[in-house]
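Can't attach files on this board, so I'm pasting raw text. These are the components:
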Amino acid sequence: MRFTIFFLFFFLASKAFAVEPSEILNDTELENRARNLSLNIRCLVCQNENIDSSESEFAKDLRLFIREQLTDGRTDDEIEKFLVSKYGTYILFKPEFRSYNIFLYLFGPFIFILGFIMILFVFFKNSKKGK
Amino acid sequence: MVSELGHFLLISAFCLNLGLIANSISTRSVLAEYTRFFNRLESLLFTFLAISFLLLIVSFINSDFSVKLVANNSHALKPILYKVAGAWGNHEGSMLLWVLILSVYLFLFQAGSSDYPKALVRNVILVQLSTTALFLFYLIVLSNPFERLEFPPLNGQDLNPILQDVLLVAHPPILYLGYLGLSIPFSIAVGFLLTNDHKINIVSLIRFWSLVPFVFLTLGILLGSIWAYYELGWGGWWFWDPVENVSLLPWLINLALIHSNLILERRNSLLNWTILLSIMGFSFSMIGTFMVRSGLITSVHAFANDPSRGLFILLIISLAITSSLLIYITKRSNHINIMKLNFASKELWIIVQNLTLLVIATIVFLGTIWPFIIEAIFDEQVSVGEPFYEVSLTPFVVIFAFMLPIASKIRWKGKNFSNIRTIIGLFFISIALSASVFIWKDFKLLTFIGLFLSSWVCFGSILDFTSYFKSQLNYIDGLKRSLILNSRLIGRTSAHFGFGLLIFGVTAVTSWEIEDIRNVQVGESYYLKSYKIVFKDIDYSVEKNFKKVSGSFEVLNNNKLVGTLLPEKRLYPSRNEVTTEASIKPTLYNDFYMVLGNKIDENAWVVRTYIKPFISFIWVGVILIALGGLVSLLSFTSYKKFKA
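---
Top answer:
Structure tokens for the assembled complex are below.
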């Protein structure tokens, strides 16, 4: 009995497990950059996870790829650009600030400023009337 | 037989519902004298649905696999608790619960409405009944929980292992009590517009029925967050998952409603805005449901993704929302009571607070639907996730938190900042307090802002409390009486203080969390900060409906035992799924959080250890926010009389 459970776990656990000790770089600064980058990169075969916490093989490959690139001296930007050119914009959790995405970033602040101006407008109109 | 009876009651409830709608339209002229009789029938609607729901639970307990829903979501060997909770751990059952709670609120509203004008009450009930009818129709036609199978299987397919948790019992019902509680402000708003008598005062009605869902929604979201914390992975408590986002939207709108209603109460202004917020709150509840149930989004909550159903829910919801908005546009009050605002008046600050909440909700909503918009228009795929929300929401949350102590300290119709000295004093004390933390830690700007805001909000709410409480001291005779008389002040303080604690918890966890990933041998030990962690043992065992392997770790501080951690991996043979069960040892300041990873060899395992500082402040903060709403409700025990 014990053996079968043991075997089952060994078999089922063969899928990768988030960041593994063997993946971690010795250079802490590079490793931190890798972790930060990973938070923004979507695991394309998972539901709604970044590659840092995903258990899939896909995520593992990308984690290793990022670390390889960082060790070769690429910048974060270059790596993200490369991933976008290969997998499309879907791979980034934080959409790039360009073309239609500008609307996504600026709509909230726009509403805030517009609303604020409207409130001030009513405020000045009424404070004059009050005099 | 049990499920046939349940099915029969469900259909009867629908017929009764239609009859009641016809009645509440016609009572205006003909059947007025029967109103009392029909009121009893409304409680009958609730009774039918309640029994129907109980019968569904009975089918689950009996493991009646001839019922399709039971066969798909239960298993004979499952513990009784999950058999019961399994009744709402799926699409059809949870929709029945949804309709049942709608009728519960209808019943409660009616029971407490005797002080209000008959015409208003009748219209509110009409709106609530119509909403219930739409969802009942959907339930019976497209997601019937009592559907039978021609060839029942010997055993069920079992419930998704991730859902097999004690919180499945509490999280969905409490969350639904929140979502659907918002249907009452919605019905009040639309009913009020239909009554077309703008002299009726709906302030206390809105106040009561926006605070009730506020409490439940806050607790429901909290339970979901705690659940995600220990079940879903690496100790995150908020993932900006679409499902979490859509639960946040009605919460934010309802919070704005509670505050704008204060202006309606004090200054008799912003009536239209308050009505619009009431309509928007429940609209977002429904939109959230649509997005979760239609299969548009993928997450653990997507237990029912059937696009054809999604289309029908979309139709129902558009019908409800557009018709209520049309009623708003045509019937809203044209007489606008313009207040005189001063920079130092509370009402101006609350209006800006409302604006900020609305902007936060807009960003969350736009971020959630952005991928669908882009796919529809440009046929491209984008993702919007945590890093986006962090960047775009932080400035507005900072503005929101910064305004809070000032807004609660200044007076209604205030002409000047009479309390400016206290506010400036508070400002510098908070700066000094948060700066002093960096004697021990590395300086980070966001950490500093977070610490400043938490101190600013926490101490600000205490100052607010003491200054008001002094002027009301003469009221104090007996704890119960003073609690009720000051319930609004105490409630407000609790909620605002809780928000400050929440900011502190979030800041601490995001800034100072420690993570460690390594291979550990049985018997080996390692250090994290000053804590020594020893891998004692690994153990294999068989439980009722799963098999598990569990590690045993001891956490020591200066050779004193802090606690034992028992992370597990479980295998559910019925679904052939493996889940990881994190082990958490909460202490006053730190949570020790451990996950067991892969097996390396006979004796070595990958182990992830986290030390999460002050995460309990997040839970306590949110509990205080909910408690604040609850205490505020006490005020209705003293002056629930309707003021015309």
